[in-house]
Amino acid sequence: AAHSCVWAASGSIMMPRSELRKRTGPDVEKRGSREFDSPQGKTPKQARASKVGPVWLILGAAVVVCISLYLVRSLMFQLPSDSSQAVTAGLPSGTQPPPVSVSSFALAGDRQSEDIYQRMRKRRAAALTKAGGISGVDPFDQIHGVYIWDWFTPDWNCPDRERIGPVGDGGKWTCGVDKLKESLADGKRCLMYSFGVRDDSRFELEVINRVGCEVHAFDPTVGGLPPDAAQEPRIHYHKQAVGPTSGHSDTFLVVESMLDTMDRLGHKWVDILKIDVEASEWSVFEALINAGRLPFSQILIELHYADPATTFRFFDGLERSDFRIFARETNHQPCVAGRLPVAVEYSLIRSPLAQWPPPAAPLAAPQAKVLQPPKAALWLVTNAKRLPQLAATVEGLAHGFFLAHNLRGKYPLYIYAPTKDVGQIKDRIGGISKAAGFDVEYVPVEVTDAHWPTWEQSKSCTEGAGGQTYWAAELKARTELADKYDWLLRIGDDARLSKPVAYDPFAMMEDVGKSYGVLAGFRHSDSAIYPSAKCFVGLVEAAKAYAAKRGIQTKRVLALGSSVKSGTAARDSANEPTPLPLLLNDQFELSRASLWRSGSRYAELYEALASAPGARASPFGDAPLQTLHVALAVPEEQWHVFSDIGMEGRGGRGFKAALGLPPPLPKSPLAKGGVLSLLGGNGTNGTNTTKGANATWGGTNYPRQKAAIYVLADGRRLERLIEMLQSLDRHFNQRFGYPIVVFDEDLSPAQKARLSAATHSPLTFQPVHFKVPAFMKEEEVPMQTGCLPERGLGYRHMCRFQAHEVNMRLVQLGYEWHWRMDDDSVLTGEVPYDIFGKMAVEKKLYGYITTVRDDDACIVDLWDTAKEYADRLGLNPENNFFSEWPRGAVFYNNFEVSHASIWTSPEYRAYFDYIDQAGGIYFKRWGDAPIKSIGVSLFLSHKKVHHFSDLGYRHNPFIDILPAALRKDTGGRGRPPALAELAWSPTKPVQSVIGKHRVEALPDAELQRWIAPSSDVGAGAWTGADIASSVSLGPEEGGGAAERVVWLFGDTLLGAVEGEWGGARRVKQDAVAGGFMVRNSLGVASVDPRTRSPKAPMAFWWQKQAKPGASDAAAMQLKLPNQQLGEFVWPINGVRTCSGSASSDCKLLLVAARVAPLRLGVAKLVQSDAFAVKATVAIVVHNPNDAPADWKYDMKEIPYPATEATVHWYVGMAPGDEQGRHAENGKWLYLVGATTGWSRQVLARIPTSDFVALSFIEMQVWSMAKPSSAPGWHTQSKLPTGDAFAKTLVSIGGTGESSTEAGVYYEPTLGLWYLPLVDGHNIVLRTASTLTGPWSSHTVFRLPPRWMPEEEYFAYAIKSHPELARTGEIVLTYNVNFFNNPLMGKLFDVGEADTYVPNFLRLKISSGSA
User: Is 37 within 8 Å of 163 (Cβ atoms)?
Assistant: First the structure.
């Protein structure tokens, strides 16, 4: 109570509780509000409220309140235990929370806070029940403004809540940090874990400076802590990821569960847990909650949206473990490209009402294997002459290896030295090892002239090279230690760790199955550290002789004889021997001891090379010997490159920066087929040469170009820029040496010096100064454009600069080729050729890494402006591809290689001036990527554009492309699936709940057999198609007891099927027989109206070839006055409408896609199918009851108020009443549509009679007439035109959940509309009582394993078929195709005959959710 009194008397006592909560409590926010940010300060009104009353009144009131607080608290802790609603889950047995921790100060308001919190939980539970359970939660309900985070509000009152750290991303809301400081004054410990620090440790440093906590920081993505944090002794860095279990993952080499980390470090309790791990938090906390161990006082966590079920499970688990939310704040940084809040900061505290101490219980077992230290040792060879360097090396090991990861006492260090030097070395090193807590063994070596070359002898090689390597000592160390240990780490005696290793490399290598690892290799072009070729006299000959004797046929050894000239010729005589292409850097060499044991190839190779003439005359040195041995003895997949470890060595001549952990993939510094043959350098005769037998890498000889790599630098993101530069060095420029131009606005001289020191590439700095163009006024530029995230003036300056000026500046510097990299993007794999030379030789002008689609809100009017300009020019479409380039598609130009002629051409300069003068860069936030992409499509042939599909590139969080060598083959492999794998094989029903109804979903094998093509149908048959909509045409004519149903199909495959089902393959229909594909087909089926089962096989129809040699044709032909050659139509949805009782009074109304083919070359650029949807077409079939061959139909394009459609109205169609309820004969025909770009589901309606007449004057859309007005029905023709029209439309579904090929249907048992769609691997029903919503989502089925091997397939085009459904049932079909399937080729592989046919799924609905 004393603490409560001190707090109360500090100025808050005169305020009522409500005002007190406004000042000190959680966010004051409206229920369901979309505003997440917490207030950070008092309003003037609140500030005035604190100046109340004279001093005597304040003091008197303070006494009264102190007494009241004491009484309330006394009564509170006399409450029965069952009224506290507190549990003790989450505390490990025997774990006492800190005697004084944040959660120990149970203020008098704690009971009130708990009551409020529990009321909130009850409201949440009630709302969840009303929504129909978690499956009914729309995570981003834009109609009602309710997001997933609104379900979890900060209702716990922390009276001393405080935001610590920087403004914006990186700062955290904390509770009671000053109380932690008071506990330290009593001699207690304060401990903080911080997962995810990257290059910003301001929060951690402020906690240390304010409180004095011991901080452990974990991050596998960086080389080490930022400089300010690295100098702080109370913060300890660990280069590892956190996961649900320990071991390596697909992303990181070193992963440790949180509890295993605590056990390893000997920690029982963590006062502050800060965690920002980019969506890994869900699995981490699920493991913690399941283990029943949550030994934390408060949790500060950034959550990245996953799904409602995961989110509810997370908060429920924490709340059951006594954690309470006391703060919440949106992180706006990830809310990019028009997306909704996907990252939110939460702060939770363990309730002071939890039982202290917890009841005794056995400790939970470790969640998985801990990386146990293997039997291993470190070793080095030295002598007394090198004592200063040796001392620095051992100091680096002490702080960067043994102390950095709590490895004291686990691994010994062996120092091999001449007998006469051991005493002197021991005196110098003993104090260092004792202080750091690791053992050192000093091993004397007897030096003889026969085995240890003298200093004088070694001078015939590079200065001191032979005397420093000590062949005999190397052999002695390796063979002796190999018999004692399983792993060995060799350290150079002048190799000092530049930053802590921060994990156990022995345990990591054993865990990931590697056998040999080094930092990297030295190349002959590294003249400062690469030995002279004099050191290799006779080595090539000796290696060849050994290979011949042993019968070894490998290019790895023979490559030593290849002639590789380099810049070393200027340093050494022209007649000296050829140097090795690569020497492994054994200054940090970690290996399995079995490689060196007696009888290994190493000892044999040593003897062979030691007997060579050059062994004593040069001598060769240890690095060539290890290089040869490992090339011969270690499989490439067992190699590892410690690209993350930083080291200084070679007397300061060799420096390697520390980086983040590499992924645990087979990654060798040397390529397949020629471990020593790959890496060339800047060759002679002006060429860049890469030699080798590997087809991916070898066979290139490109002329060097006048080229530069360029980047726009921001001094606030220096660490990211350094990472990018070093990735360029590592993967490209260390061999090709192209200059890098850094355009900067604000870099200081010190920052420029740091950048220059961080890379081996030549840097040139060019200043830039931004301002708005002269034709506009800066004060008129709007701050808000509607393009998210909203960017300020500086970003728009950057877009204008990158769209044109930067290339003109590079031309002025004399560069013809320009390669753009952004400061936060990196190469992730070797670039095996000279990029510029490749482009020049192959006569390409523009190169890109991938394409993306820009947000419609960020390109408002840009495409229309460009089209208007193109129309004025009258460009020949044969010389460009603008008319085929999809609206919103952009080359992702954060990686862009281009020739200057594009940007200096009069055509592009005039185009850019036109776009620039339109003002959209500043007023509508047009980006440089769409501006340049349109320019390329306008003025280049697609044949001049190159896709760098083989390179590895990452630009977090948007793009992450693996190098081609590391990708899985997703091509059709002709493997017949087992029958049990077939998607329609019987399985256990999948159960779900929609409202008060239970839904069971199961594949329907009977219907699947009905439609599946088989070997019985013969040649020239229907063998598969997509879309697969169906429409009932009513009773068959003639009075038969059958219902006639027409099916609509898209692209249709023609041919035959061979083999048994499950291992069958399609055979294409030959071109002379009509070809293997038509653009659409029809099917007619008879269905028994009582059983809802097909009465006979479906009859398929399309137009067969009119004469021999002609192609077959689609069933329905496009018939529009303005259609272009090659365009076609896909009928997608339909309804039947009748004006009378006779069948002749009925018409079939269809909505279809008008589609234009793309040239294959353009389709490859967009990385999409070879077509583009141009518009929506309405079709009226006047005689649907006749045979399809006799159909008479009219069609018309549904008008759209812009030059190019951004809304497609063919998603679904259904009749309804005025309110959007189901009405079979309703006045209105509703059309469900989808916007392009970041898709939304939208809604329109038209009188059915108008659709029949193909009149769209009265067509209405569900929209807002004005911004922020209530949604309603508005006539389309009266709304704004152009891109502004799409902005008026109101979404009826969540972003990202739209589907362009779905359909909308009504289910009587549910009493709901439903719209089926595929979301990843799940089939989802969106349901609503009226078409205008609100809509909710329900996952009803997960695709079977047949369709999910290696992410090879994708599902789409889900449709419902009421004609086949009995009462209380829904029958769905979905289609499956391949990713990356040009010309449908993979569909004809063996075992793939079940792809690209409708897959049937039957849903059974019953009352009651139990």
Answer: no
- SS3 percent helix, strand, coil of the chain, rounded to 5, is 30, 25, 45
Strands (DSSP E) contained in 751-837 are: 763-767, 817-821, 826-827
Question: What is the C-alpha to C-alpha distance for residues 929 and 955, in angstroms, rounded to an integer?
Answer: 15
Number of H helices, E strands in the chain: 37, 65
Q: How many CA atoms lie within 13 A of 913 on its CB side?
A: 7
For 932-963, the pLDDT digits (tens) are 999 999 999 989 999 998 898 988 777 888 88
User: What are the residues whose beta carbons fall under 8 Å from the beta carbon of 243, sequence distance 6 or more?
Assistant: 249, 255, 256, 257, 280, 283, 284
Give the model's pLDDT for residue 1085. 95
Max mean pLDDT among 289-303, 600-614, 1163-1177 falls in 289-303
Q: Which residues pair with residue 1131 across a beta bridge?
A: 1152
Burial of 654 (0-12, 13-18, 19+ CB in 10 A): buried
Question: What SS3 class is residue 978?
Answer: coil
Structure tokens at 1160: 């294959």
Are 516 and 592 spatial neighbours (Cβ–Cβ below 8 Å)? yes
- Please spell the DSSP secondary structure of 551-595, one letter per residue: T---HHHHGGGS----GGGGTS-TTSPPPPSEEE-TTEEEEEGGG
Say which range, 282-286, 596-600, 1111-1115, has the weakest mean pLDDT: 596-600
pTM (global) more than 0.90: no
pLDDT over 80 at 611, yes or no: no
The SS3 assignment for 485 reads coil
In tens, the pLDDT along 8-62 reads 222 222 333 333 333 333 333 333 333 333 333 334 334 333 343 444 444 455 4
Sheet (strand 1369-1378) strand order: 990-994, 997-1003, 1399-1407, 1369-1378, 1353-1360
Nearest to 940 by CA among 983, 902, 978, 995: 902
For 177, 401, 618, the CA distances from 392, given in Å and listed in that order, are 39, 13, 29
H helix runs in 341-499, sequence order? 387-397, 422-436, 455-458, 465-469, 471-482
Do 670 and 523 meet the contact criterion of CB atoms below 8 Å apart?
no
pLDDT at 847 over 50: yes
The position carrying tokens 């290139």 is 700
Residue 414 pLDDT more than 90?
A: yes
Highest mean pLDDT (candidates 22-26, 190-194, 355-359, 1406-1410) = 190-194
What is the SS3 assignment for 728? helix
The encoded tokens of residue 1306 equal 């009504």
Residue 1351 has pLDDT above 70, yes or no: no
Check: CB of residue 1390 under 8 Å from CB of residue 1057: no
Residue 905 per-residue DSSP state: S
Question: Which of 215, 272, 276, 285 has its CA nearest to residue 243?
Answer: 285
Contact assessment for residue 1033 and residue 1045, using Cβ atoms and an 8 Å cutoff: yes
Q: DSSP readout, 84-104? A: S----TB--TTPPPPSS-GGG
- Peptide bond just before 341 cis, omega within 30 deg: no
Q: Which residues of 376-411 are buried (b: 16+ CB within 10 A; e: fewer)?
A: bbbbbbbbeebbebbbebbbbbbebbbbbbebeebb
CB 297 within 8 A of CB 101: yes
Residue 61's region, left for phi above 0, alpha for psi from -120 to 50, else beta, is alpha
- Per-residue pLDDT averaged across 807-821, rounded? 92
1317 contacts 1299 by C-beta, under 8 angstroms: yes
Structure tokens at 593: 């001891």
Instruction: Give the Cβ contact number of residue 1093 at 10 Å.
Output: 13
- Amino acid, res. 88: T
